Amino acid sequence: MRFERSAGILLHPTSLPGKFGIGDLGHEAFNFVNFLKAAGQNIWQVFPLGPTGYGDSPYQCFSAFAGNPLIISPEKLYENGFLSKEDLEHIPHSNPHQIDFGKIIDYKKNLLRKAFENFKLNSNGTKESFELFCASNDEWLDDFSFFMAAKNYHGGGVWTNWPKELIVREKSAMKLWREKLADDILYHQFVQFQFFTQWKELKKYANENGIKIIGDMPIFIAYDSADLWAHKELFTVDENGKLETVAGVPPDYFSETGQLWGNPLYRWKVMEKDDFLWWRQRFSQLLEMIDIIRIDHFRGFDAYWEIPGDAPTAVKGRWVKAPGEKLFNTVKKYLGELPIVAEDLGVITKSVTALREKFNFPGMKILQFAFGTGMERKFLPHNFVQNCMVYTGSHDNDTTRAYFEKAKVENHDIYNHAQRYLNYFGDEIVKELIRAAYSSVADLVIIPMQDILNLGGEARMNFPGKLGGNWTWRFTWNQVHHDLAKYYKELAELYERPSKPEDNVDIEVEE
């Protein structure tokens, strides 16, 4: 699918400003949409929106379908009658630029429990819409709510440590546990109802203001997830959850032992039997939440690195062919042409490129990879094709300012090459790199908010391989210069993002 020439900003809702310790779906999210509109932007990109687990990574969620309770707005709960003013007064002290997940998780859970108890006393006219939500999402909501209730009952531990009858989902035991956990199951259904109600209000507002939302679909699911527990037959585990094979990538110049991700792999042959129903449900549900899907690790749909489940590293593995073409053809047959962008970074083979091009999915370009002796020439703007999406950096990169500051000291070849390529030798090289992205032929330009604000390494979102301290960055409005929106609006207009309508002039010719 070809996309309109557009410009947008990458910012996860957790990074929004606000007084509750973490960005949420409340008024500041609507303010950010207003900023995007004022800045001439027509895309807002976010990370996966699911409920995060250990490590707080949005790429390791308890469900591929559910929403993240941490970004439910307390103010919206108050406005809808589920919290009192007093409930909003005792906010834990926090750094406005950093999320303290330990504090925030407990704080938000307490607020949500209060809201749930108030909902049971008085649904404030939402009972019917709540029941409709539960009924229309039962294909994932029932299992997820049971999973989270059971996890809570058993101290938050991984589901493979539960009683055997729950691990294997023994029918009679499931019925008894469902009765035992009934109130907590209802709580998790209520929380999901609130998340999706708030998210859809925000998405509607964004769409009405000309902003489309790009969201991420991680190719693999988390091991500790409702998806795996409820559908073990679709993944490479035995009935007790023991991993037979796991995902990762082989050794390369970044790592001598490769990357051992530990996610279960798919039993593709089993999935084919019902025309990839699980995937069709996943795509369908995600497209109710967002407008464009960015598939993370797209190359895994062509072939994936299969590692034995008990392997200590990713060295011992093999490439296994995946049915990407058959999957996307089947999904297209049921759902029509999908608005997909493919994350095709790393070592990409001809067959991966062929799969992406067959379905006309735009690939990705990262400008931070374009310079120096180890550069990837395909990331230099003069080598772009139109059907691609360009970033200065991604969530796994340092901020562009920090990248260039480090290059100045440690690898002047990178900095010198960038200066010569951009024909710019001043102090605002980040701004010039953004201009290069805007001026390129790439249909889509997405700039991380950290680079829009020209922030340093303190604003880095994720450091792959580093345990703890990731995904915590937030911005505040006092970091946004008063004429920043005006500058980006002019930049978007200058480089025709969106494209100007073509002049179609009819010329009368005498015969």
Compile the SSE list and pairings.
Elements: E1 6-10, H1 27-38, E2 43-45, H2 74-79, H3 101-121, H4 127-136, H5 138-153, H6 164-167, H7 171-180, H8 182-208, E3 212-218, H9 226-230, E4 245-249, E5 259-264, H10 268-272, H11 277-289, E6 292-296, E7 303-308, E8 318-321, H12 324-335, E9 340-342, H13 350-358, E10 363-366, E11 388-391, H14 400-410, H15 412-422, H16 429-439, E12 444-448, H17 449-452, H18 484-494
Parallel strand pairs: 1-2, 1-12, 2-3, 3-6, 6-9, 10-11, 11-12
Antiparallel strand pairs: 4-5, 4-7, 7-8
Helix pairs in contact: 4-5, 5-8, 11-12, 14-15
Structural write-up:
- The strands form two sheets. The chain has an eight-stranded parallel beta sheet. Strands 5-4-7-8 form a four-stranded antiparallel beta sheet, with no helix packed on it.
- Helices cover 39% and strands 11% of the residues.
- It has one domain: Glycosidases (TIM Barrel, Alpha-Beta Barrel).
- Helix 4 (127-136) packs across helix 5 (138-153).
- The longest helix is centred in the middle third of the chain and has 27 residues, at 182-208.
- The protein has helices at 27-38, 74-79, 101-121, 127-136, 138-153, 164-167, 171-180, 182-208, 226-230, 268-272, 277-289, 324-335, 350-358, 400-410, 412-422, 429-439, 449-452, 484-494, and strands at 6-10, 43-45, 212-218, 245-249, 259-264, 292-296, 303-308, 318-321, 340-342, 363-366, 388-391, 444-448.
- The protein has 18 helices and twelve strands.
- It has 511 residues and is α/β, with parallel strands linked by helices.
- It is globular, with a radius of gyration of 24 Å.
